[in-house]
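Example complex used in Figure S2.
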Amino acid sequence: MHIFLITLMLVSQISPPSCVTSYDTPNDAGNSITIHWTLSTDPNIAGYKLFRTQQGQEPEFLSFLSPFEKQYLDENVKNKIPYTYQITAFKVVGNDTLDAGSAVSNIVTSSPQWFNTKRLNVLIGIVIFFTLILYFIMHARRGKKLFIRRIAGLDAVDEAVGRATEMGKPILYVPGLSSVSDIATIAAINILGEVAKKTAQYETTLLVPNRDPIVYTVAREVVKEAYTSVGRPDVYKADNIFFITDSQFAYAAAVDGIMVREKPATNFFLGMFWAESLILAETGANTGAIQIAGTDSIFQLPFFITACDYTLIGEELYAASAYLSREPLLLGSLVGQDYGKIVIVSIVILATILMMLSAKIPVLNILKLFNIG
Amino acid sequence: MQRTIPLALCLGFGIFMIIQFFIPHPVSNAAYDIVLKWIRLITIFALVLGVGSLSMHHTTKIRRKITGWQYSIVTIIGVIVTAVIGLVGGVGRGSGLQVIFQNIFIPVNATMFSILAFYMASAAYRAFRARTKEATILLIAAFIVMLGMVPIGSAISKRLPELAEWILTVPNTAAKRGIIFGLALGSIATSLKIILGIERGWLGGGRQ
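Predicted assembly (581 residues):
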């Protein structure tokens, strides 16, 4: 009788977790329910046991949880099936395990969503930016003159092609080592078209070694089209645009070999590069070639700046095609980009001020609505 | 028609990928997976073209005895031998292909990578010649950072590692973020131009 009473007292000392709520995990592909609860006030509990009950069935044990966990993500549920959850706090007293269960949670069903609300800020940003770009493209289409600042590396393209022509040496164009799904590669391909037009006009040999087979096929078509567009399909040599290997350092070794043997007068390194950037650029510098590089990899930029004559930094690479072609519609998008930057910098300044003030003025916590607070 | 179909496909898939980013529904994820599978398939077909290009390029060099044609013989033999060993002996553990990979490919790759250390030294020498104002600033900053990162730096002054850390986390990060902002906007703008068919360089030019 005494033992029973003592045990009863001990059990009553465990306070169960409370406020167990469950809801369909938002912004997901379904099959997931999130459960929240308020921790037990008993500081000596060993942990929690989580149970799930599918409507019309027996409760099933889901998981042991630590005494500090307040949330659980159940990703083994079926959509459109109602479930309830219960959490039991437990502790070990001597050889016995004592537990106390919470109230059963609300009934919940899981379902997939059609819109990720966490990405609403991205959507707003994209709509604003797209609007700006389209506005300036329309602006350019109406024939308005747009100012574009000088980019030294792109102004040097003519000089670089001219030098190669005078010296009777080839031009080497490396369109990066990434695949065609990389935006830097696409930018490099766009510039290749403009460079190829110039080499076609001057009848200068253009060598384009490739690491990616798809980039190789695209590069070949771009060069062929460029030669045709300036009326010199006869000068085009398909063999000068070739695939080497998809191995990073084997490619670097092969391009180094081309630079040492062929001694190109001009080297273009445009696109995405990794550790091989300096190997390529230093070899080119040692052969005495004019080197124009450009990449969107901020880690490789210092190497190119050090070893090359001209470097297109970051977005200048994307702007190059518009800059070289002077196509009004493309130039319009560049101006749109600049206005986009003004918007972003304004938001950064405004958000910084609001964040600093929000500690004193709670109403300014509005930033939390945009997932940036 | 030769341009219209690729442009229409680009527009359709471009818009689909934008919309897909905002939809977590399984239907959207399944469609995205299908697109990824197709990309892998196309890459495999393109690899055949790549190997064809490699063979053509080097056989032409050998036939015409162009400078360095001997290296082309090595390349062709390498491709054929590796392919035959891989096809006949398989690619599993202990196979001939693994022996080639472990004993030739990896050491040669590592050798190329190790050359980077020497190139870094020569590039650093060129960068640190204080010929211009910018190069002088670069030299001073690099000197402080390098000293701050080694034990002798803190022996010279306790503030040196802090200063090095400050250079890395404040001016360096600020510059990097500026570039990243531009890159993000530039890549979105480039994507939009390609999706809308304004930028057609990837089709071989021929803009509107």
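The first strand of chain A starts at residue 18 and ends at 24. The radius of gyration of chain A is 32 Å.
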